[in-house]
Design brief:
heterodimer; A: mainly beta; B: mainly beta; 0% helix; 53% strand
């Protein structure tokens, strides 16, 4: 158990809908990361937050947005969902936001878009 | 741009065999960090090791060992006397060393199956 929690574990929804994925980092960690794992694209970095501020951005679609709240939990919002958004979405956290910090991953949220 | 290549898509071994998972990376940074993660069938990603670009010493942790060779841009992972519980997908990853923010660039992963 990494100490990172993600809810829900599974999510099934329809095209065009909007969903919110939630992540709580390990106790004391200030930085949160979101990754998408799909069969065709592998594991891809989406976005990083550090202490409430966006720190780095990867291949995140405009239909997706994220934020980190004052209590350090984070939410990833996915809107106008398409079939291709079906994937496993991981949240990770690290003590600081530096590149040498190891990132600890949550169990993931499996999103299925029908 | 950074890139990580794990050329071995799948490896199958019999228990107690040694197995090496290859990882080759590309980066223009002089400072960078390399990682290995394990993804067992349950799906979570488990951190195994971090190595910085200035430390080329090999590392051993129990049955696991890592060989970092900057000259060939490789960071290979060896499991000695493999066990069925080692069956998982293993990912090699890279972060840049000198930028603000952090992002892991992952390889494609190697599916290791250890048969009894």
């Amino acid at each position: 158990d990494s100490g990172v929690t993600q809810t829900p574990k599974h999510l099934i929804t329809a095209t065009g809908q909007r969903v919110t994925l939630r992540c709580s980092p390990r106790s004391g960690d200030l930085s949160v990361y979101w990754y998408q794992q799909s069969l065709d694209q592998g594991l891809q970095f989406l976005i990083q937050y550090y202490n409430g501020e966006e720190r780095a951005k990867g291949n995140i679609l405009e239909r997706f947005s994220a934020q980190q709240f004052p209590d350090l939990h984070s939410e990833l919002n996915l809107s106008s969902l398409e079939l291709g958004d079906s994937a496993l979405y991981f949240c990770a956290s690290s003590a600081q936001g530096n590149t040498y910090n190891e990132q600890f991953f949550g169990p993931g949220t499996r999103l299925t878009v029908l | 741009a950074q890139k990580v290549t794990q050329a071995q898509t799948e490896i199958s071994v019999v228990e107690k065999e040694d197995v090496t998972l290859d990882c080759v990376y590309e980066t223009r940074d002089t400072t960078y960090y390399l990682f290995w993660y394990k993804q067992p069938p349950s799906g979570e990603l488990v951190f195994l090791i971090r190595r910085n670009s200035f430390d080329e010493q090999n590392e051993i942790s129990g049955r696991y060992s890592w060989n970092f060779q900057k000259s060939t841009s490789s960071f290979n992972f060896t499991i000695t006397a493999s066990q069925v519980v080692d069956s998982a997908v293993y990912f090699c990853a890279l972060t840049p060393g000198e930028t603000s923010g952090s992002r892991l660039t992952f390889g494609e992963g190697t599916q290791l199956t250890v048969n009894p």
